[in-house]
Amino acid sequence: MMRKRRPVKRFKRVPIPDEKLNSVLGSMRLAPSASNLQPWKFVVVRDDQLKQRLASACQNQKFIADAPVLIVGCATIAEAYPYLGMYMSSYPLDMGLAMCQGELAAFREGLSSHWVYQFHNEKVQELLSVPQGDVNVVFILALGFPEEEGEPDGRKNLSEIVRYEKYS
Fold it and tell me: From residue 126, how far is each of 105, 132, 139, 158 by CA, in Å?
């Protein structure tokens, strides 16, 4: 299944049925997190005017406004595990796992997704009434039915990325 998944920026103007969206959100909810603290809230955006303003806050990436649904992943920092390796908090990894599960669930449901990582956090927080301080917007996930089919981008061979026992 994962070999066929690819990011898409062109979506059909077709609403996503609630059962498909809930399947994606349910998979995100089940993602692993440090100490099972689940430090997340997900804001679902369907309103066209709000998506347009969010696209503006995301360096005017047009596909954001065109996606039928946006899921905005917000980390509640106080609910995250305080230390995780080199991170001062577990939330970056926790949120990444939730987003990844959401992308795979979307693909399973016949949807495509695209991870938005270029955005002005303060503007997105303001547009969505996200509390300042203890909550960070970590990602925006655009969802929809793909307008075009295609092949996934090339991936590195295992021999290029896997090391056994030692790095070198």
Answer: 29, 9, 15, 43
